[in-house]
Structures are given as C-alpha cells and as structure tokens.
Amino acid sequence: MTANLTRKLYDERLRTLSEGSVNVNFNAFIDIKWDDPEFAVDTSDPRWVLTSADALGAHPWYREQPLETRIRIGIWRWAVIAKVGMQFENILMRGALDYLYELGNRNEEFRYLTHEITEETHHTQMFQELVNRTGVDTAGGKRWFRRVSRFLPLAGSLYPEAFFTGILAGEEPIDHLQKSALRSGEPVHPLPQRIMQIHIAEEARHISFAHEFLRLRVPHMGKARRGALSVLFPLIMRVLCDVIMIPDRRSAEQVGIPAWVVKDVFWKSEAGRRMLHDLFSDVRMLAEDIGLMNKVSRPVWKALRIDGRPARFRGEPALHTD
Q1: At 130, phi and psi to the nearest 5?
Q2: Which of 126, 288, 318, 116 is nearest to 215 (CA)?
Q3: Which of 141, 216, 293, 316 could make an S-S bridge to 145, C-beta 3.0–4.6 Å?
Q4: Which tens digits make up the pLDDT trace of 123-148?
C-alpha cells in the first residue's frame, strides 16, 4: 500500500472518529445524576464490594474480610483508581496540546484530537468528582510519577510515537478493568457503573486513535528509532500499568491492607498474574502488526511477564479454561 493511500485511509478513519465524537458525547455534570439518592456514597452499601474482576477483589484475604471492611476498601480502591485516571488524562491533554501546536493546516489530527481533549476534560471532572464524593483523600499516583508527570507531556512533540504508546499504557489497563467489572455480572454501585459506561464509550475512540496513529507512523520510522521504540514499548506498558494498578503501600496500609497482600495481588497471585497477562493482549496484537515484535524486544516482553497470545481483535474478552 502506497504512503499516500495509507494516509488517505488514516484521514478517513479520523473523520469517522471525529463524527463519532459529535454524535455521541457526554457531559460530566449532565449525564451523571450526582445528587440522585441512588448515586449516594453510602458506606453500608454492599455494591461497593470489589468484583472478582479486580485482582484485589479476587484475593482470598479480601474475600475473608467482614462486609464493612470490604466496602471501605472497595470505596478506597475506586477513589484511588479514579484519581490516577484523572492524572493520566491530564497528562494526555497536555501532551496532545503540545503535539497539536505545530500541526500544519488541513491536518485531520487537529480536529479529532481537540474532540478527544474535550472528552478527556469531562473525564477528569467525573473522576475527580467521584474522589470528592467518596471522601477518600488520595494523592493518586506514586510520588515519583507525580513529579515526572510535569515533563512527560513534552514527549507529545519530541517523541510522539513514544507518547502515544504511553497513552495506550494508561488507557488500556483502566479500560480492561472497567469492562471486566461490568462483564463480571457481579453487583457494582451505580455511581462508578455510570462513570465506567461513559468512559468505556468514549475511550473506545481514544484507544482507536492511538492504535491508528502508531499504525501510520511506526512503519515509516527509521531503523534505529523503530528499534528503540520496540524495546521502549513493553517497558512503557509495564511501568505505567504498575502506576495505575498498584496502590501505594502506605495508602493501602491506612485502609488496613497488609503489605504482603499488595505484593501478592500485584502480581504474584494467580488472579494477579492472569490480569497482568490479559491487560496487554490488545497491544501485543498492535506490536505484532506494526513490526515492534522482534528478536530483541520479545525477551523484554517475557522478562516483564506481559508476553503471550495477542488478541485476535481489539477488545476481545479474555478466555480462561481453568
């Protein structure tokens, strides 16, 4: 396929994504009934108990705790993930704006990405509002991440392929966790449930863009730059996944979770290892398709314990036979 035809197809897909943003979009303070009594954060509501889709919720230690404790930890867990999610969305917006600043006229990326930034603004609002409503005073990501996050958006213009790899590393784990929670069939409190429904609907476009962006750009990168990205790709995935998924141990201890449980859940337990494997099936497929799986990078995926069968299609539910 010629470069011109590839670009034409890419632009057509971006126009489709842009139209999707126009036709299906949400407002954080219109489409969520924050003051509905059904959405209230009631610390006696068992629907705050974590589902088995969350590795912490599936852990025997958590399941053996009294209902009151499981509810309290469930509320805390939702708040921490929401706060980290807000911080990732904030980095995405700043980096995307940095990338957009130098785009030429008539570039389809400008319209689509500004739609995405608008949607991410609402996502940060609903994530932060959830945190506020829970009363959990969480700092979100680990201290080192909060410090380097001041500089990460610069990659939007300096190394956009690595930046949008990082965006996928932030979006894919949260999207996977949310879909798994909804697919579990277990009760979920209506407030995080509604937030997840909105986030999944719009995040599908955002993840699609990052995939399409990398599919367009990576095959045309120079050999050295592409080789470097092939190794950085799994490293970025694993590091940022850990930022999102693994709570700070001190914060966990404050709600009564022993350090050994955090260590076992992320990622020594059977459920934890399974989740870590499942989180990356889509991006393994992408890496295979765009030539980032090679004899140098494959051992890195394996060493990081995120190797395995790639998904057959985006969003393929994990299948387990045990």
Answers
A1: -60, -45
A2: 288
A3: 141
A4: 999 999 999 999 999 999 999 999 99
3-state secondary structure the chain: CCHHHHHHHHHHHHHHHHHHHHHCCCCCCCCCCCCCHHHCCCCCCHHHCCCCCCHHHHCHHHHCCCHHHHHHHHHHHHHHHHHHHHHHHHHHHHHHHHHHCCCCCCCHHHHHHHHHHHHHHHHHHHHHHHHHHHCCCCCCCCHHHHHHCCCHHHHHHHCHHHHHHHHHHHHHHHHHHHHHHHHCCCCCCHHHHHHHHHHHHHHHHHHHHHHHHHHHHHHHCCHHHHHHHHHHHHHHHHHHHHHHHCCCHHHHHHCCCCHHHHHHHHHHCHHHHHHHHHCCHHHHHHHHHCCCCCCCHHHHHHHCCCCCCCCCCCCCCCCCCC
Whole-structure pTM value: 0.93
Per-residue pLDDT of 263-320, as tens digits, reads 999 999 888 888 898 899 999 999 999 999 999 999 999 999 999 999 888 777 766 5
HSE at residue 287, side-chain half, CA atoms within 13 A, is 33
Distance CA 293, CA 288 (A): 5
Burial 162-186 (b: 16+ CB within 10 A, else e): bbbbbbbbbbbbbbbbbbbbbeeee
Cα–Cα dist 203/172, whole Å: 9
Contacts of 185 (CB under 8 A, 6+ apart): none
For the chain, the distance separating the N- and C-terminal CA atoms, rounded to the nearest angstrom, is: 43
